[in-house]
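tmp note - Structure-specific endonuclease subunit EME2
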Amino acid sequence: MSRGRNFFRAMVRAPPTGSRSAAAGSGRCPAQRRPGSAGSQLEAGPAMSRTDAGRAGSSRRGGCLRRPPTWEVSDSDAEGPAGAEEGARVPGSAEERRAAAKALRPEQALRRVAVRVDPAVLEDAGAGILLEALSTLGCEYQVETQRLARSLRWTRAKPDSCPRTVPSEVWDAGEQDFLLLLEPEEFLQGVNQLTQTCGPPCSVPWISPEGSASLHVAVIGLDAYLWSHQPSNIHQTRQPETAAVARTAVALSWPRVEEALVLLQLWAHLDVLLVASWQELSRHVCAFTKAFAQRPLKQYQESRAFSFCVAGRWAGGERVARDGTGLRGVWWRQIRQFNRVSPAVADAIVTAFPSPRLLQQAYRTCNTEQERTALLADLPVKTGDGARPRRVGPDLARRICLFLTTTSPELLLDLGS
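out:
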């Protein structure tokens, strides 16, 4: 430790503009004179001595080698004002971004969702299957009276600490969804009411006019119920409770039910789920719970200018130096983004035209559109020994030509997809 301190003191006290032997003995890089800095160290004063000494120390620590500044070009780099703002927030919000990423995980979002089960649902013998499925999913459920009898209601709670890096709409807790469970008899009575009206119905059964939440309907065992109430099967099953229910079941068949389903979807934007058992209903409820938990995040991602572009850099990007080293690799990657382009084909195009600007200049020299689209078609592609000779081909040549020459943002490059 004492040797290190003595060496550091000697290095600080050593004159930065001394003789060659002093610079070589200390192991530092020779100091460079700046224009207008003539004169000795005594004339410059102690302040200049301390400044130059610090600069010399930093040069020694860097090994006299500076790493050339580079950029990382990748598909995930943000561009434009939004990217600049995002980049300005990144350095000082690393912990917030980690907290936001943790809070947005599917398992974390699922823990903030609660399923409110109406007590009337528990009267059915198969309700235990549904509650067991919710417990296995890891979602909280509570038994409490709902505005709609025999219904399930989904609610979302905000996290304890909302990261500032994520918009507030992602943590929106006001959204609610209902799933109304109907018996086959009750559903068929509503269907009969719908199909007897001419034109759009003034009111849809099971829906209250003041209800603003999103409603879904599920019917368990409708297929078996219709089959058992066919005229040929009535004597094999138990008699209906009332004559009205019997007439409704006999009068309505699957075509009438399908007609009612279309009317509900078009006029009331109401989805009806027809399931055969409580096991099938439980699978649907679990899938809907997962989708409900992840819905705000997906809506936020889709609302961005480029939903597929994630801000930041990634290790697979192509590094580009100030002298242009790496731009050829970026051009090669850009060609590879076209469908059905192998590395050998991309190598052939990049070898013939090392940059897109050179290819654009070659397109300008062509006299006709046909000549432009066929410019790259006959480029040879290197293949292995004994393989048939290949070329780029007219399809890829046309797509690359359109990509570099068209002015229409709505033009489809790949007509075969």
